[in-house]
Every structure is written in C-alpha cells, then in structure tokens.
Design brief:
alpha/beta; binds 5'-O-[(R)-(carboxyoxy)(hydroxy)phosphoryl]adenosine; binds zinc ion
Length: 359
C-alpha cells in the first residue's frame, strides 16, 4: 500500500511517500521544508507566520515528495501505468491549529481530486511510529549489527517541543500514557533555557552544541541544577522548575556568560537524568523488553547514548530502538507510517469526515 504522508503541525512543512507491506514500511521519499530561519528572529514559532509559510510551501513539498518517489497520480493519463498513491495520511493534531489546517485541507483536496481515502494521524503517535520505519530506522543496538524489531509490550519515551510522555504500547493502536509532563515539555525547556542563555533557537541543538564544547565530566561540574521529580513514585515529569532554577542560578552568578557551556551541560544532564531514570523504572515495572525513543529531543546524542547504556546495564534482555535523526524531528515519513498501521487495523476514512483536532 503506497501512502502519501503530510505533516504541518508546527513549523516544518513535510511530505513523504512510504510503501507498507505487512509489518514493513519502506520510505520512498521524505521531504521537509523547515521554517526555522524565519522564526529564529522572533525566538520561537509565530503561529500566523507558520501557517502562511505552510500555505506557500505545501504543494511544492508534496510535488517534490511524489517526484522523488517516482509517483504519478491516476489523473496523469500519460503515467497511468505507473504506481500511484493508494491513500493519504495527514497529521490532524495536536499542534498549531492554522498550521494543521493547511495540511488537513490539502490532504482533503488531493483525496477529493485523486479519489483516494484518507487517514488522520495524531502527531504524537506519528513520532512513536518513526520507530516502525523498517530498515531506515536505527533498528539496532549501538555497536551491533543486530536488527531489532519492536516487541510488545513496548515502552516509548516520546519527547518533543510540545510533549513529554512515557507511553506503554501493547500492540498497534493500543496505547496507555503512563506518565507525562505536568508543565513544560522537555524540548520546550531546552528552548527556554537557550533563550535565557542567549544562544539561539531552537534551543535543544544549541544547548547540546554548547554542552559538547565542555570537556569536563558532568559529575565534576561546579554548576548544579535540580532533577525535578526524579524520585517520585509516579512517571510524570516537570521541567518548569528546572528552567526557573537555571534562571536563578545565572542571576546569582556574575560570571555566567563565561560559563555558558557549563550551564548547558548541567541543564542537559538534568533533563537526561530524569528522562532515563523514569524510563528504566517504568520498563522494569511493566516488564517491557522493547524501549523506543521518539520526538525532536530524541535527536539529543547524550540522551541516545546514555539511555542505551542504562538499558544495557540496568535491564536484562531489553533492547532500545531509536529512529534515525531525520525521523526524530517533525517529518511526514513517520506520519505516513503511523497512517499505514492505523489504516490496516481500523481502516481509512473519507475526505468528508476528516477534521483537524488542534488539542
Ligand atoms: O518533534 P519536534 O521536531 O517538534 C515538536 O513536535 O515539538 O521537536 C522539536 C523540539 C524542540 O524543542 C527542539 O529544541 C528539540 O526538539 N530538539 C532537541 C534537539 N534537537 C531538537 N532537544 C535536545 N537536543 C537536541 N539535539
Ligand atoms: Zn513533533
């Protein structure tokens, strides 16, 4: 089944074509047009500006994804014999409402024109399904050629700019949120910390780059920040206190501008410590042998490598699956993949029934 995926929930206009067969999904094309440079000068995403950019980019991006996948639509008589799109998967929410609407309405218009069915995808589930992209995913344990397929029950740490959740997955379409952030998402905390330190937007990569400049072990850092809710019995998170602690720390420290790398390293380590501790605790309690990472913050190299190490040393037989970097941040291949697995279980809908769900 060949699916066109569309993603416009925030500031990336993305389209991808995937081919799903059984439990395997192969990416045929994956195009992302980022608006980062446009929003950088505002220090964050401006919803109205984002929506306007999506309107301008969506058709060129879809066209490029179709061309790269060598797809033609059935309306193109000249190419009627070549493969065509069977269905369209699109992110319906959560996200910025006017941004989402551009993707959803485009999907509807294309479905109407091509007379194909559609499937609405939840953005967070899209991130989770980045782990189910066959072969293109990093289906392997670090330093090993072994291919690891997800086994249920699986535990997913899904961390982005808009959400932070621990999700228990008992099968395709069977999710249970076992913990989530009570305030800021992990990516949002990185973005706010970077803004305080004046190192740019988006904050996650900026903090990670600064932290990487420091050659001191994190345990030897003089700067100390809290690990919120680390020892709580539940699996919830809270990052707004950490952000405030950073603010107070730099307000007290007259020389903070000379120690930006140190503050970044400690901030990053505080986030990583909390995320990993809770993930390991939950995996033990729920007896999950597959652990997956997803969302923009899953691009964080320290999180990837430290989680891998923690799983190896603290759990027996559990395996970690991490999507490739390009499938961690917003993209449409993950949306098409989630759409494929939803469609083969629950079926498609029609363009008339597809709706945007901003929350
Ligand atoms: O998944 P995503 O592209 O969009 C949302 O659904 O929110 O995630 C974007 C978030 C941003 O907050 C960004 O700062 C964070 O992911 N991020 C990172 C890294 N790369 C992106 N956070 C930490 N380390 C990174 N390397
Ligand atoms: Zn996202």
């Amino acid at each position: 089944m060949i699916i066109l995926g569309i993603e416009t929930s925030c500031d990336e206009t993305a389209a991808a074509v995937v081919n799903g067969l059984g439990n395997n999904v192969k990416v045929l094309s994956n195009v992302v047009s980022s608006q980062i440079e446009i929003h950088q000068k505002y220090g964050g995403v401006v919803p109205e500006v984002a929506a306007r950019e999506h309107v301008l980019s969506i058709l060129p991006v879809v066209n490029e994804a179709l061309a790269k996948a060598k797809m033609r639509t059935h309306v193109d008589k000249k190419f009627a014999h070549v493969r065509r799109i069977d269905a369209i998967a699109v992110t319906v929410g959560p996200g910025l409402v006017t941004s989402l609407m551009v993707g959803v309405e485009t999907a509807k218009a294309l479905a109407f024109g091509w007379q194909v069915p559609v499937v609405g995808v939840n953005h967070i589930k899209g991130h989770i399904y980045a782990n189910f992209i066959s072969a293109n995913s990093k289906y392997k344990i670090q330093n090993s050629k072994q291919i690891q397929k997800p086994k249920f029950p699986a535990l997913i740490l899904t961390v982005s700019g808009g959400h932070t959740m621990l999700v228990l997955m008992n099968g395709h379409g069977k999710y249970k949120v076992i913990g989530e952030t009570l305030d800021d998402a992990a990516g949002e905390a990185f973005d706010k910390a970077a803004a305080m330190l004046g190192i740019g937007y988006p904050g996650g990569p900026a903090v990670a780059d600064e932290a990487a400049k420091l050659k001191v072990q994190s345990s030897k850092l003089k700067v100390k920040l809290p690990r919120p809710m680390l020892n709580d019995k539940n699996f919830n998170f809270s990052f707004s206190g950490l952000k405030t602690a950073l603010l107070y720390a730099i307000q007290r420290d007259k020389k903070w501008k000379e120690k930006i790398s140190e503050y970044c390293a400690e901030f990053q380590q505080a986030v990583v410590d909390v995320l990993i501790t809770k993930t390991i605790k939950a995996a033990k309690m729920l007896n999950c042998q597959t652990i997956m990472l997803s969302g923009g913050v899953a691009s964080n190299k320290e999180l990837r490598s430290q989680l891998n190490l923690a799983i190896k040393t603290k759990l027996t037989n559990a395996k970690l699956i991490i999507p490739k970097f390009k499938y961690c941040v917003d993209n449409a291949a993950m949306v098409a993949t989630a759409g494929y697995f939803k469609a083969i279980k629950k079926g498609f809908t029609t363009w008339q029934k597809l709706k945007t769900h901003a929350n």
